[in-house]
Structure formats: structure tokens, C-alpha cells
């Protein structure tokens, strides 16, 4: 089944579920995202100290809930380059009009993460 997430691009946030690196249990957070094709981009202000980043480093298979739809995906940490710049630009552009805070530092200093979505969970 082709993943179509563009209908959810304007959602304020998604729910990301990782598997706990110690507990082995699902751990869900609410997080900002931007969609591009079948990939979601997230920024971790806590960089690699964030629990969700530590969890996905150990187990990159994740689930993402967008509105009422849940998808399986594979998480990747981005390194400096074109995709990293894209992630920062589109997340910043999406949330700057919605926030009263200056998000420039957050956008520049956060760890960029990509989640390639695969299938909708039925």
C-alpha cells in the first residue's frame, strides 16, 4: 500500500512511538514534524540526549500516528548535508508562524531525524 501522508502535513504534531532501549516497552511522545514525500522530519532540541533518540538509535523501527492513522517507519539520524538542511528548513518554516518564540536557534542546533514511513497499521 502506498503511504500518503500529505493530507496530514498541516497537523500540529504527531505521536512517535519508539521501543524503550532498557524496558523493551513502547514509549510514545507528542512531537512537531514536517512531511516531505513519505518521510517525516523531526528536530530533537535535546539532540542525542533525548530518550526517544536513544531508543531509536538502538531500535530504528518506529510507529507514527498522524491524526487517526498509524504508520510503521524506519528512523534515521541525519548528518550535515542536503537532507539535513531540508529537514531544518521545512520544520522551521512550518512552526515559525505558529510560535511566539524565535525558533532560529532551535532549528540550527537541534539534531535532525528522518522517519521513512512504510505501511499504515490496520
Automatic annotation (TrEMBL):
In alphabetical order, the GO MF annotations are: oxidoreductase activity
InterPro entries (alphabetical): F420H2_quin_Rdtase, Split_barrel_FMN-bd
Entry-linked Pfam families: F420H2_quin_red
Stored NCBIfam families: hi_GC_TIGR00026
Q: Write down what this protein is called.
A: Nitroreductase family deazaflavin-dependent oxidoreductase
Source organism of this protein record: Dictyobacter kobayashii
Amino acid at each position: 500500500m502506498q503511504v500518503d501522508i500529505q493530507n496530514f502535513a498541516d497537523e500540529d504534531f504527531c505521536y512517535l512511538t519508539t521501543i524503550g532501549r532498557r524496558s523493551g516497552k513502547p514509549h510514545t511522545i507528542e512531537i512537531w514534524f514536517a512531511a516531505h514525500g513519505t518521510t517525516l522530519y523531526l528536530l530533537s532540541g535535546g539532540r542525542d540526549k533525548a530518550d526517544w533518540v536513544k531508543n531509536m538509535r538502538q531500535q530504528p523501527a518506529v510507529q507514527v500516528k498522524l491524526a487517526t492513522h498509524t504508520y510503521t517507519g524506519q528512523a534515521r539520524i541525519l548528518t550535515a548535508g542536503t537532507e539535513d538542511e531540508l529537514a531544518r528548513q521545512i520544520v522551521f518554516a512550518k512552526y515559525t508562524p505558529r510560535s511566539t518564540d524565535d525558533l532560529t536557534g532551535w532549528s540550527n542546533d537541534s539534531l535532525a531525524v528522518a522517519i521513512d514511513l512504510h505501511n499504515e497499521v490496520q
